[in-house]
Design a protein that fits this description.
Blueprint: E1 13-17, H1 21-27, H2 32-52, E2 57-64, H3 72-87, H4 90-95, E3 98-103, H5 111-124, E4 130-138, H6 140-153, H7 161-165, E5 178-181, E6 200-202, H8 213-225
Parallel strand pairs: 1-2, 1-5, 2-4, 3-4, 5-6
Helix pairs in contact: 1-2, 2-3, 3-5
């Protein structure tokens, strides 16, 4: 991890849109599920790097609410990967003091995956050193509409930014500072539209399974050079 010692500024909340698994596999003459398997294996490596860097908040966009439209065999395969992901390393999360959140419509997931998600969130809810969010069956528009409908149910007459954020999946979390979408696609794909209004975005052409240590360093170096003004201008001295 010596390469990262040159970095002076790191995001407090980094997000990964892990895109390009299928194309990575196709390029190698492999089935798409081989790409998703490679993507999960790579995710574990990247998350370990991020943990060593002490980036406190991490979100991973793993499965969108629109991904149900993919072929059934691929969706079933992805669900099996999520079962694996949610079942392994539970004790390690506790040992590393990592709080896990599953962001998305849990009711739309297979019953056993919902149960595993709720179990893992309950098991790690008191962890405070790191916060790791897996966005599964997640859609930003749905998140906002759910928030609005719940506000209406509670008959609130006035809502500000602070109150509105309390109705989002990401309540109690800081907004993303830096969002990386791999594979060279220049789309936000319905990912945290409300929370990302001032996020820095980075779109490397690398497919997710090939996104390694040097790619992460390059991305973080790009972030370090961004001038985040939040609508302000710097006064001339």
């Amino acid at each position: 991890m010596k390469i990262f010692s040159k970095l002076k500024t790191l995001p407090n909340h980094i997000c990964f849109i892990i895109d390009g698994n299928g194309r990575w596999a196709k390029k190698r003459g492999l089935p798409r599920m081989a790409g998703h398997r490679a993507g999960l294996d790579n995710l574990k490596k990247i998350l370990e790097m991020v943990k060593v860097l002490k980036i406190k908040n991490v979100s991973v966009f793993a499965f969108s609410s629109e991904n149900w439209n993919r072929p059934k065999a691929e969706v079933d395969g992805l669900m099996n990967l999520f079962r694996e992901m949610l079942s392994e390393n539970n004790e390690q999360y506790i040992k590393d003091d990592v709080c896990i959140k599953i962001l998305g419509d849990l009711d739309g997931l297979p019953a056993d995956i919902k149960q595993k998600s709720l179990y893992l969130m309950e098991k790690t809810k008191n962890c405070t050193s790191h916060f790791l969010n897996f966005c599964i069956n997640y859609g930003g528009k749905t998140e906002i509409l759910n928030a609005v409908n719940n506000i209406l149910k509670n008959k609130l007459l006035h809502v500000d930014d602070k109150i509105f954020k309390n109705y989002l999946y990401t309540k109690d979390m800081p907004d993303p500072d830096f969002i990386i979408r791999t594979s060279g696609e220049y789309r936000t794909s319905n990912f945290m539209p409300y929370q990302s209004i001032y996020s820095e975005w980075y779109f490397p052409k690398t497919y997710w399974p090939s996104f390694g240590k040097k790619d992460l360093y390059t991305a973080l170096k790009k972030y370090e050079k961004r001038d985040r003004r939040y609508g302000r201008i710097k006064e001339k001295v």
